[in-house]
Amino acid sequence: MESPAKKAIVIGMDGASMEIVKNMVDWGHMPNLAKLVERGAWRPMVGVFPTLTPPGWTAVSTGSWPGNHEVMDFNIRALGERLDQTVWGIDTGLSKSEYIWNTFERAGKTPILVKWEMSWPPTVTTGIQVEGTGPGVSNHHQIAGYHLFVGGKWAPRRLVVQRDPETLDPSALQTVSEFDPVTLKPAEGWTALPDSEKPPLEVEMVIQPLARGREPMNRGKNGTPKAFCGLIYAATAQGYDRVRVCRNRDGRSQVCDLGVGEWSDWWLDSFEIDGEQVRGYVQMKLIALTHNADMFELFTPQIWPSDGYTQPASIAREIDEHVGNFLQNPARDALGKIDDDTYFELLDFHHQRLADVAQYLTGSRDWDLLMIETHASDYTSHFFLGQADPASGAEQSVLDRSREGVFQTYQSIDRMIGRIVDDIADEDTVIAVVADHGGTSNQFPAVNIRKVLAETGFVKYAENGKIDWRQTRACDVGLVHIFINLEGREPDGIVPPQDYETVRRELIAALMEYKDKATGRHPFALALTRENAEMVNLWGDLVGDVVYALHPEFDGAHGKQLPSVSFGMGGQHSAFVIAGAGIKPSGMLTKQVRSIDVAPTICYLTGVPMPKQVEGGVVYEALNDPDWHLK
Length: 631
Hints:
Blueprint: E1 7-13, H1 18-26, H2 31-39, E2 41-42, H3 53-62, H4 66-69, E3 75-77, E4 86-88, H5 100-106, E5 111-114, E6 128-130, E7 147-152, E8 180-181, E9 185-186, E10 201-207, E11 226-233, E12 242-246, E13 254-259, E14 267-273, E15 276-282, E16 285-289, E17 295-300, E18 304-305, E19 310-311, H6 314-322, H7 340-363, E20 369-374, H8 376-383, H9 396-423, E21 429-434, H10 449-455, E22 474-477, E23 481-484, H11 500-513, E24 524-529, E25 546-550, E26 566-567, E27 570-571, E28 576-580, E29 587-588, H12 598-606
């Protein structure tokens, strides 16, 4: 008996709401995805709560809800520890549910994962995995994050937008220096100088291994700085217009020579971390240099290693030989510092390289399941989308820049989708394009739950500014959970067990009655007991004693909003598009689709057993023949 599909491709778009994806299709920004929509089925998909990366992708990949797989958040309650102690959620070892790629392996089939979110450390045994840790700086492999060398009259290119906290957007570190100031001075002691119409200047640019990485996820503790010497010269009479980057003050030791707006080629260099040499790829762009050299800006994106980021390890060497260097983070954390054009140039390289890697791996060996993910849609949610909708109240110039950023992001994603569909899929392949959660624009300042708990008397602070646990009755953990500081359960618990229910009811009432002073509106959409939180698919000891949700206008891009809201041009419904083998051209489906339905639908179409802890169902409405297995 042959299954309707022999192979499956799942393309992930982090933070891509079906609302905004359909707008991008309808407005002509995603012609390749439009073809899949036309020949397949689609629907706004109900995802997880909180609307967040770790629970979302784990649900898609296992077919089970957070209450089952237990990957609740980026920051998960550390049972038995004080309420401010958490477990970092980017870790496959936390999942209590089987991943679909392991299901395929159990059936004797071969999965290939290319930067599939929330899949590290690898659990593949016979398949292939390329990266897969987390968004942006959340990875175990990078040698260094970006470096932005600036001098003179330089200023960042910020948008007037509230910044989502790291608990929601860990792909943008907010407690590290955003740029690397340098000083331009007359060149001294150089040999083999290029011809210059003005006296050459020099600048020292130091790359710091491990810079701009998430400390608990860094590949080491200490990186040895590596300096490059930049010679700024005037190739024409107009003034300074080029920089020659060298290893020392000898023009013949150059690694690149750049004019304004030019990128260097990637080159493989050596760096020292914890006393050991590691090799990684470096690239530079001269973003700006004025003719009188009163403003200088040179950018170096993430330095990614040539090996060590795949399972098995030999795959990295194959990629290095047959494809070229990999890049995990297309400078998301530099958005608003560098110019938008530089970011989108790097984003296009990133997307095309993901497609290159996928095409090479699927073309060089037998395979049955390809899973590939981009985080760019979430990057735009946290940076551009916040001010892209008129609901944000942004002035026209900010609105225009933000909308253009959203459009360019989805255009770049669509080009990657086009290559994967055209170059890898055949008539026996089913293709699903899915998201873990959505994204919305901003309207009002996001509610700070810790501040609300302090204002309502549940959190108390000591004179040193830290939480006074002797007077604190409840505290937030992660995005949507609030735990009672219960005596006998928490190390510093003060609420007697007999008062537990009374305090919990008081807390729920305080949240629902809370009124935002600036708007006079109630920001909380709901507040539930742990027992009632099963209605949003949360249960177990890791779930707060009280779980709450915000109305979208009082949240950031996503996270504390319910998975079924729409707001402005976006929303929190996850994208779901499916086409190809076994799928009929259904258009918009009438029946509900949930994120836990993706894995079982792919398994059913390919004749693979269901994941062991599956809770989702098959999207039968989209199938050509729902009863194929009976024939």
